[in-house]
From TrEMBL:
InterPro entries: GPCAT
Acidic residues: bias regions: 33-44
Region (Disordered): 1-54, 442-470
Coiled-coil spans in chain: 415-442
Family, as annotated: Belongs to the GPC1 family.
Name of the protein in its database record: Glycerophosphocholine acyltransferase 1
Species of the source: Hyphopichia burtonii NRRL Y-1933
Length: 470
């Protein structure tokens, strides 16, 4: 039997000779290094009389040296004959290991070390935060992209109304003004209630509402008034129609506010087109004699009559709104003048109006500019009155323009809302990642004083988070 086999046999003579030596070494170690000894587990620090088996699971590093012997024994006297140089290298390794573990112990007194359990806890916390952000993102997107039952119902009614308008114009044009009245009665109370509620009540005194009221007066109370018809036709085919372009009215069918604004600006020109060009002559002469007796359009007369009705509106507006409600306007209530003054502040006309020293001068300049815009837009009224197809093409163009603005609203506005929510989610994830890196950088295990052969600890990445909660 070889010497190695004899040593590995339990109860052999070599084992009995090693026991007193090991016990004396333990006593001497406790006496010399009592203040700097590292607390070890009883199972790992106990030394039995049996053979010493080297296991990789008991090792702190990748070395094959047993740490229990490295830390407890003052030298490596295992009963083997080793040279002084080997003994010196072993003692240096022991000293370096003791210093490193002592440093870890001192750091643990200052910082709470991130052990395996804390890493798992931090992973779970990060996962919960990430899943919470994703849940909130889904709710926000659903809230912004989904419509209520009221909006869905109004969308269906708007499509039905447009279909009915085309059907009535083609089949029963004599009832189209009645159809207009029905829509007017349904939408205007809602508009009045909504604008008073949100503080836009002064918008109800704008020119577009004034023109709609004049049209109702002509249809149902003064169908014989030629001056009223000329003024309504000029204002409706002029300022009201072009306002769809300048004010970007959008035909968004599921929003009652947008659809009502389109109705206010598009419906009067369509109704006047039907009255002038689609009604039978006998019915026109009986129901709207002012239109039947007007053979040709007098451009100068149209400007004069339109200017009179326009002046009546401007004087009434400034008296009851600009003067009587001055305090409310100064407190922040919005009017069309204050809105356009702020919106067009960077344009040439806006800079000119805002540069005037007094408010009354700014209002006067704004009124004259608006009047000049009205005269400019009514230049084409003789053409719209005389030629049916030209008038029909113009009205169709205004309707298509409003529909295009509505499509832009659906694509751009909803797309921007979704893009905004995605960017918010990205920012929240970045903040979570920064928080995770901050926690890792504060850890004592991430300090730059490790040796070159140490393996650095990798910070937690968002990709490491499981898809499902454990």
């Amino acid at each position: 039997m070889s010497n190695l086999e004899q040593k590995n046999q339990p109860g052999s003579q070599s084992d009995l000779e090693q026991e007193p030596l090991l016990e004396s070494n333990l006593v001497r170690k406790n006496e010399l290094d009592q203040d700097t000894a590292i607390e070890e587990d009883d199972d790992s620090s106990s030394i039995s009389s049996s053979t010493y088996t080297l296991n990789r699971s008991d090792s702190f590093s990748s070395s094959f040296i047993d740490l229990s012997k490295l830390l407890i024994l003052p030298d490596f006297d295992f009963g083997l004959q080793v040279g002084d140089s080997t003994r010196k290298r072993f003692n240096e390794m022991k000293s370096k290991t003791k210093q490193r573990l002592k440093q870890f112990k001192d750091d643990s007194m200052k910082f709470k070390p991130i052990n395996s359990s804390s890493n798992i806890k931090r992973n779970l916390e990060l996962q919960d935060k990430l899943l919470s952000k994703l849940s909130h993102f889904d709710k926000r997107v659903s809230r912004n992209l989904q419509s209520s039952n009221t909006e869905k119902f109004f969308y269906a009614m708007a499509v039905f109304s447009i279909s009915m308008a085309g059907f009535i114009i083609g089949k029963y044009p004599t009832y189209f003004h009645v159809f207009h009245l029905c829509l007017f009665v349904m939408l205007m109370p809602i508009r009045f209630y909504t604008y008073f509620k949100i503080g836009f009540k002064f918008y109800l005194a704008d020119l577009c509402y004034y023109v709609n009221i004049l049209l109702m007066l002509f249809i149902w109370w003064f169908p014989n008034s030629e001056s009223l018809f000329i003024s309504v036709f000029s204002l409706a085919m002029g300022t009201l129609s072009f306002a769809v372009i300048t004010w970007r009215n959008s035909l968004v069918l599921h929003l009652i506010e947008k659809t009502t604004s389109s109705f206010i600006h598009i419906m009067p020109p369509i109704t006047l087109f039907v009255i002038v060009h689609e009604l039978p002559q006998d019915y026109l002469a009986e129901r709207f004699p002012a239109v039947a007796t007007l053979d040709h359009w007098n451009f100068i007369g149209g400007i004069i009559w339109t200017s009179i009705y326009y002046t009546i509106w401007q004087v009434t507006y400034h008296y009851f709104i600009t003067i009587k409600r001055k305090e409310e306007i100064e407190k922040g209530t919005v009017t069309s003048f204050t809105y356009l003054k702020k919106k067009n502040s960077k344009s040439a006309l806006g800079k000119f109006v805002n540069s005037l020293p007094y408010t009354w001068m700014q209002i006067t300049a704004f009124t004259l500019i608006q009047f000049g815009y009205q005269i400019l837009t009514m230049v084409f009224c003789p053409i719209w009155f005389k030629y049916k197809h030209a008038c029909g093409f113009f009205v169709t163009f205004i309707f298509v323009w409003a529909s295009y603005n509505g499509a832009t609203y659906y694509i751009d506005v909803f797309g921007k809302r979704f893009e905004k929510e995605v960017n918010n989610l990205k920012n929240e994830i970045v903040l979570l990642k920064q928080e995770n890196e901050k926690l890792f950088n504060n850890s004592p295990f991430n300090k730059p004083n490790m040796e070159n052969d140490d393996i650095p600890i990798k910070p937690l990445e968002l990709s490491d988070v499981n898809e499902e909660k454990p």
